[in-house]
Amino acid sequence: MNEQKKNDRVTKMIEYGTWIFAKTYAKSSPHEYALLKTHPELKDDFMELARCIFEEGYDEWFYGRRYKYLKVGDFKYWSMDRTIETTDLINRVPYDESNVESWAEKRMKECNIK
User: Fold this and answer.
1) What is the pTM of this model?
2) Domain count across the chain
3) Would you say 39 and 18 are in contact if contact means Cβ atoms under 8 Å apart?
4) Please, what is the angle between helix 3-16 and helix 43-56, to 10°?
5) Taking the CB of the first residue and of the last residue of the chain, which one, N or C, has fewer CB atoms within 10 A?
6) Collapsed DSSP state (helix, strand, coil) of residue 91
7) How far is the CA of 103 from the CAs of 26, 71, 113, in angstroms?
8) Which domain holds residue 81?
9) Tens-of-pLDDT digits for all 114 residues of the chain?
């Protein structure tokens, strides 16, 4: 796949995917996630983002476990699955850690979380 088509697919998933605020982790580890099952029309784009995370991402530790992360725009994306093929959920959070708290507060208000 050429670079432009890859970038178009990743951008399409990021822009048109439904990113759900993870209410359970709102205060301890705020982030959003997208589920493959809610995006059947974006399956190829979802899987391309997963492929980029696994093949082009960087390692970062979270609670004693290493995951692959990928910075795209203002967010970093990651999967907690072990392979591209088994990825059915992709997480994201603002890349700039100094913005996470204000971003999370805004998202919590939008979701009526106190």
Assistant:
1) 0.88
2) 1
3) yes
4) 110
5) C
6) strand
7) 11, 17, 13
8) 3-110
9) 556 555 889 999 999 999 999 888 788 889 999 999 998 999 999 999 999 999 999 999 887 889 999 999 999 999 999 999 999 999 999 998 888 888 888 888 888 887
